[in-house]
Specification:
By secondary structure, the protein is α/β, with parallel strands linked by helices. Helix content is 31%, strand content 22%. A six-stranded mixed β-sheet has the order 1-2-6-3-7-15. Helix 6 packs across helix 7.
Length: 448
Amino acid sequence: MDSASAPSSKIATDPRLGPLLQAIADRRDDLIALTQDLIRIPTLNPPGENYRLICEYLDTRLRKSGFDTEFIRAFGTPGDCEAYPRWNIVARRQGAHPGPCVHFNSHTDVVEVGSGWTQDPFGGALKDGLIYGRGACDMKGGLAASIIAAEAFVATFPDHAGAVEISGTADEESGGYGGVAYLAEKGYFSPDRVQHVIIPEPLQKDRICLGHRGGWWAEIETFGEIAHGSMPFLGDCAVRHMGAVIDAFETTLYTAMAARHTDMPVVPEGARSSTMNINSIHGGQAERPLDSTALPSHCVPDSCRIVIDRRFLIEESLDGVRDEVTGLLDGLKANRPKFDYALRELNHVLPSMTDRDAPVVQTVARQIAAVMGRAPEYVASPGSYDQKHIDRIGRLKNCIAYGPGLLELAHKPDEYVGVDDMMDSVAVMARSLAELLLPAPDATPTPD
């Protein structure tokens, strides 16, 4: 049994934890209300609504708990404009003694609502111990849990060492460039400023997420020649050319990807292979509204476009992923009459993976074991999240995702987060702060 398999650290049985656990229990109703308040601020992205409003809400809340706060606008990042400025907040509570900084980072944006809801997506309804709403699990429940954990800890141990930070950041759902990436570029996640980072994404309360797969997004366009639809032989159909592209993907690429497997503990099981999704396809005339009574004109399409979302494994290279797709396209160009294409890369993210022996991993693992009575499961995410920027830009490796909520509910109708799950996560987060920022029970604090 390793050190993470049981509550074997001194802090796990530290008698000083009694008041901390009571402070958490006393805040249950506050946790519910805080989560509901956050859900009721509709921070939809795109376009990036109400970022300033939610930062102001967090500012008011955290300053009352003794945190110093800073607003940071990510000027010039994708989507930032006067109508939809990319606002972020970083709150810091400095302790009484030297020590490390523990940072909880949560994104404040949520995706579009979509159809199929039976609950008000921005109502924050509480039913049978579940709080419903867009962003409930992804990740306003995690943000609320980290705030309650930090507030309970600093209220119980006001003379703690080091510092506690909480950030609410923009645009994770669209890549994080107006949020964590911008803050990392400005030094907010440099290892000399922050030593431990916990991102409360919804990976389940008994799991530690060590990292994520990589991603490559590109638009492929095939070309043709416009002509009258009654005489298609006088033109060249770009949609048929795209059909050949999709057929090549089906017969060659998907088979090759399915045969690859990673040693990363990616969940669910299907994501341990390489995957690719065709996000969209469009060819020819602009799409007609569903209720339109107008008839289309009769033309051979001279352009067709698809957007692909290729998720790749840590064992693969970005260049290899690109070359595999372009190789198929070049093969079609060489062998299919009149075939031509253009490829435009839209974005890419490299895989990220924190070592299981990293200090924040071991600390949180011990506290999951103490709270839940079982060792955690170590997983990796099928999709990326803001760890990529903390790792690649901030050069900070001691980072994990840990938070309440079920990953499969993210972006779904009737998204919810369980109150009991949040309370358990609060206990894990607060106990982790105690292990990292309190002296050992038999130690004497070092004078300033």
